[in-house]
Amino acid sequence: MNATTTIQLDTRDQDRRREMRATLLIIALGDALVLTIGFAIAYFMRFQFEWQFFNEGSARTAFYAVLIAILVPAWLLLFWVYGLYDQRNLFGGTQEYERIFNACSLGMLMVIMITFVQPDFIIARGWLIIGWLATLCLAILWRFGARRVVYRLRCQGKLQQRVLIIGANAESRIISEQLSNSPISGIQIVGFVDDHLPPDTQLIPGTKVLGPISDFERIVAETGVDTVIITDTALVRERMATIYGAMETLQRLNVSLAPGLFEILTIGVHVHELGAVPLLSLSKTRINGVRAFIKAMIDRVGAFFGLLLLSPLLIIVAIMIRLDSPGPIIHRRRVMGVGNKTFDAYKFRSMRIEGNSLLTPEQHQELKQHGKLKDDPRITKLGRFIRRTSIDELPQLVNILLGQMSIVGPRMITVEELEVFGRWRHNLFTVRPGLTGLWQISGRSDLGYEDRVRLDMHYIRNYSLWLDMHIISRTIQVVISGRGAY
Fold it and tell me: Matching InterPro entries, A to Z (predicted)?
């Protein structure tokens, strides 16, 4: 590597760092502004508009001005502690919003504890409640808006994260394709490092093997990567020393270990000691214990009120199906559920009873391969409407009420489809299938089986209440647009 190339790489690396520092500074200043506004809103609501939940406190303007001046930096410190200024935790997924919730809640809890320890330190409880809610909502809205701006900048080639993948196997290829598929991710795969394939071997279009692992430190320096991903089968123990050495030399380098492609995506990992030896303990799924209880309660309550509110619509659709074509109103489909148990999933019938006789040999083959037909002659006119609007799936609220399904979860599959999921199918049996899910908001029927498997495994691995809320809100948008439904 000559001196000119080194200077160019250093300049490019410095430019990326400046971009990220400027972005984080803007994020922090925006946080400070919305937190100040949130606390100020709480003051005006509590004292100026007399939203008095409790009969205590007084409108001590100077006191609350000083208090806000103290709390805003304290909240920013909590944001930093919770990793909200770490680029790895920003601009993707729902964990950023969960961290904001935890930081705001912990901060307010600490203030409440101080008021108990110091009785002379009197703060209106109404102000605390409104302040917590206002700062939480405004911070989330601000981060949501900032994320949209960052997505646009990434599509323009800015704020890119350069990634190097160690290992050039099937897992590496799929990981690189997933990371490169979306321009809003800001991920730029610069290449692969592998001992088994010669340099310049192209693993995916436009991306090739850059050299063996022994040249790892040189490759990192030449490419100016920010992140290295190690696939689980790519390295033997001896090669890890090379990686660790580069980590010590290059402090900016983030190194991540990729789990087995799908084998352990649903496994929760916890550190525990056995005889003073630190070990990794694996749990079956992340959706267990309190999480599972809360999710089940939300499902049952949501399904009950959903059926109650939608009952007029359900009755009207049932009558229309009866008048539209002969046959039962409800279609029962035998599907796989949690614990490898089968159950009947309910849907409004959208097809003709003897519809299979209308299929051509080519359509039979397409149906066998994809499970659906884009132009299905078996579907009635009314059926096309209720499918496009997802009204046909509303009877599954009964399945949710019975505890067989969840509002959000992986896509339900039949016994025949298990073969497609192969060795990953057992992961599906750890959670209930969902009325909606990542597959619903990511293309629905336009997706192939490989993408459906990937999305289902991603949901099981990354489950959180925030993710469920995000999926539900996106589902409403997708249903209104009718995208991917047929």
Answer: Bact_transf, EPS_sugar_tfrase, SAM-dependent_MTases_sf
